[in-house]
Amino acid sequence: MITFDAPIVVALAPMVAGAVWAAAAWARRSRVRRAAAWSEATARTARSAGKFGAPALGLAAGLAAVALSGPRWGEERVVTETRGLNLVMSVDISRSMLAEDAKPSRLARALREARRLVQDLDGDRLGLAAFAGTSYILSPLSVDGSALMLYLDALDPDVASEGGTSLAPALAQGIELLHSSPEIADRVLVVFTDGEAHDSLERSLQEAHRLAGLGIHLILVAEGGRQPTKIPMRDDRGTHLGWQQDGTGNPVETSRHDDVLGAVADAAQGTIVAAELPDQAGAVRDLVASYKRATATESRTQRGRPRAWIPLLLAATVLIMQTLSRRTAALIALLIVTTSVAQAQRPRTEAEKAWDRGDPRSAAAAYLAELKAHQDDDTAWYNAGTAALAAGDPALARSSLARAAASLDPELRFRALYNLGLLALLQSRSDSASRDAHLADAERAYREALLLQPHHIRAKWNLELVNRLRRAGGQPNQPNPPPPPSPGKGGGGGAVQQQQSASANNNASGGLSEDQADQVLRSIGQEELRTRRDQTGRSRRAAPAGIKDW
Q1: Contact by Cβ (8 Å): 224, 194
Q2: Whole-angstrom Cα distance, residue 201 to residue 441?
Q3: pLDDT tens by residue, 528-537
């Protein structure tokens, strides 16, 4: 059975087709009259051309009206499969999170890591809450990560109707969101905060004990530094207006409260992600990787599949056939092809020209020049770091690739981490005095990269080389080369380097094959998990604070 979303539109389709037909026919008659004013030969040519133009335009308009009415028919069986991990993120949006001892601020860093976590946990059921003097549910558990991104983009201290910082309501609301979720999968509460809670520590510990009793995993993501710092006040354009003041008019100083964070984490048998970690989202992702997920499959029958594309396709076919029958069709096609070729021939940047000449040092300098105008261009940072790596400038390569490794683009983060691991591996061979430190950096970079792309065989192979070097002190095989610079903003599209596998000379040196290395590295996740858990803080007693509005 055929149904329409807008039946009135399909009823008007014949009228639309007739009106367009009449208008096109009138335009053709006017064209013939103007041609006849010149000469009879011109009039004959005008009458012979475009005979079927008016009917074709009318038919196309009628079909477009039918498509606009939303025709539907047929059935479709839709099967959706989701992973059952339930995770709620709670973000501290109190004014103390505006302190700039973390770059660009505690809140901005927390939101950046939360966005990356939403990307990395695609498919899990995620919820979002925010808290200051009280807690607010922004999104219940859902698999729609794009909705959470919109809420995260809008978070600001002004969103909170009550100032101050109360940690207990945030924990209680996390329990409320997670307690009703299915128990066949693990439940996780991730709290981004500096630990400066103005409610009593006793209330927070009571809620933390409830979390532990219900089997909900608590992960506290610490933000800010230990040293007291002032809270800046800025307008919408970022202009500094002054400092946050207390009731007596003195500037407020805030710091990260490790004693509160440690006490709450111990009471909930949870984990603290240290503020000093460069990749907090990766640490949280690594922790939840070992938690139990339940696969849920939902099947439903959708009646009335949208079929608007069929009349649209017919309308487009009619217009194309009419266009091709005209004498000017060849000229129009030639114009389209010429325009496309002109757009495809984009002028190469100075950095790309330097790569073409085989001069990576000049390419790195060109990328740095571009970054003066686009400091937030992660692709340009990656390209500059890759060029510096090829030019033998480890300091520039490390700083640039580290900036790119914090990108929200998972592919770009992986490539930057891969190159950071290669840089450290190469430095371990040239700097014997700091060999162990460089190998540790390489191992950490490759582990982080493999969390993003667990099946990347080249990264696994290079990590196994690092492990063998740390165990035996030798130099088995050569590492795989870095990924080439990334095209797009920042250029670098012309710098294509050949990637070769190290397995070709594997047998000659007595090393493992890539498949064997893959088997050895299957325990990476558990080892990394234990490493993260060793970074939790110690609990100390915190003195109750008074009523505050930051």
Answers
A1: yes
A2: 38
A3: 334 433 433 3
Residue 314 CB coordination number (10 Å): 17
Residues 470 and 397 in one domain: yes
Whether 487 maps to a domain, the answer reads: yes
Closest CA to 279 of 84, 417, 151: 417
Co-location of 384 and 313 in the same domain: no
CATH of the domain at 366: 1.25.40.10
What pLDDT is stored for residue 147 in this prediction?
A: 82
**Is residue 298 assigned to a domain?**
no
Per-residue pLDDT tens over the stretch 407-445: 888 888 899 999 999 999 888 888 888 888 888 899 989
pLDDT 10s digits, 288-315: 887 877 666 656 676 778 888 898 999 8
545 assigned to some structural domain: no
Residues 374 and 349: beta-carbon distance below 8 Å: no
Residue of 103, 418, 87 whose CA lies nearest to 275 = 103
Give 76's strand partners.
302
Run of H or E residues at 82: strand 71-83
| Alpha-carbon torsion (379, 384, 389, 395), positive or negative | negative
The CATH number of residue 202's host domain is 3.40.50.410
pLDDT average, residue stretch 79-107: 85
Same domain, 311 and 212: no
CA distance 111 to 231: 18
Mind giving me the DSSP string for 368-423?
Answer: HHHHTT-TT-HHHHHHHHHHHHHHT-HHHHHHHHHHHTT-S-HHHHHHHHHHHHHH
Q: Which domain holds residue 66?
A: 3-75+304-334
How far apart, in whole angstroms, are the C-alpha atoms of residue 27 and residue 265?
Answer: 78
Tally of domains in the chain: 3
**Domain shared by 382 and 438, yes or no:** yes
**Is 144 among the domain residues?**
yes
Alpha-carbon distances of 149 from 109, 177, 244, 372, rounded to whole Å: 15, 19, 29, 29
Q: Where are the beta strands (DSSP E) in 252-408?
A: 253-254, 271-273, 295-306
The torsion region of residue 242 among left (phi > 0), alpha (psi -120 to 50) and beta comes to left
**Are 313 and 442 in a shared domain?**
no
- Is 108 in the same domain as 256? yes
Is residue 183 located within the same domain as residue 242?
Answer: yes
**Burial tier of 462 (Cβ tally within 10 Å: 0-12, 13-18, 19+):** buried
Other beta carbons within 10 angstroms of residue 108's beta carbon come to 15
CA angle 210, 86, 267 (to 5 degrees): 25
Same domain, 50 and 126: no
Question: For 215, phi and psi rounded to 5 degrees?
Answer: 75, 25
